[in-house]
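Please check what follows.
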Amino acid sequence: MRKLLNTLYVTTPESYLSRDGDNVVVSVENQEKFRIPIHNLEGVVCFGYMGASPHLMQLCSEHHVGLSFLTPSGRFQARVHGKIRGNVLLRRVQYRIADNEHDSLEIAKSCIIGKIVNCKSVLGRSVRDHEGVVNAKKIRDVDLLLIDALQRVDTCESLDSLRGIEGNCAKWYFDVFDELILKQKNDFFFYERNRRPPLDNMNSILSFLYTLLAHDVESALETVGLDPYVGFFHTDRPGRPGLALDVMEELRPFLADRLALNLVNLQQISGKDFLKKENGGVFITDEGRKTILSAWQKRKTDQITHPYLKEKIPVGLLPYVQALLLARFVRGDIDGYPPFFMN
């Protein structure tokens, strides 16, 4: 099992990353602010435009440490890759599956079943814990729609049909997402999913967490030797990590949506942690990002029992476990890809 290491989040926009021996050094205005040995890291995520030295990029490549660059507001810009890792035979099988709609459909169905079941779990937990506060009937009506969608996923015969089902499920789920926001309703509300840029505080949190999750999933897929850019559900598009987005579908409700709701409902974050721009876009302040990143890192250390492996693992290893299970299926070691179902 992969050891759960740290991800270094560099949030000061003026930061520049360099290498000193086997250490990652963070400097601001030519003054060293922080350093950490590369062997303590599994990833580096930079929020800003100053960048990193080629020598530092080489260090990350040599130690298989993912290096991603985001804008100060958290929008993904680029990811530095080293030498391609993994068994070339595994990737060749992956490409053949991706070129065959019937084979792709079976994996895509598993991912979407995982997503729908986990969305149902998020909604169901809210009703169980807060039935006297939330609109339970409205949420249960959506739950019935999701149950019907699960049956249609099982019998659908094309990827386009599956994409239609998934799109409807996402709409129904987000139609009642505002019901799950119990505190700070003046600052946090949810009318629809919007992005690029997000237009309200809650969408801003979700977009930020989805970006963090995408980094972890992409790193996990590379670790097990799969190509994160060739997916089975998401169509190929230059620069889009299709397979990472596929695997993310089942993990979003558990890792991102629940954390976003907890941050707001437990009042760990507030309206002052957001800024609204002239174009209507809402961005998270430096302090807000630090709060979310701290909660994200803490969440990754929580222990769960994986429903397929029946083993206890840190939450942060979920992307790696699912990537490993997907690689085992592609190699033919198991009969199907088992999606993750949250408790």
Summary: The longest strand covers residues 31-37. The CA atoms of residues 114 and 336 lie 13 Å apart. The domain at 88-331 is CATH 1.20.120.920 (Four Helix Bundle (Hemerythrin (Met), subunit A)). The chain has two domains: 6-80, 88-331.
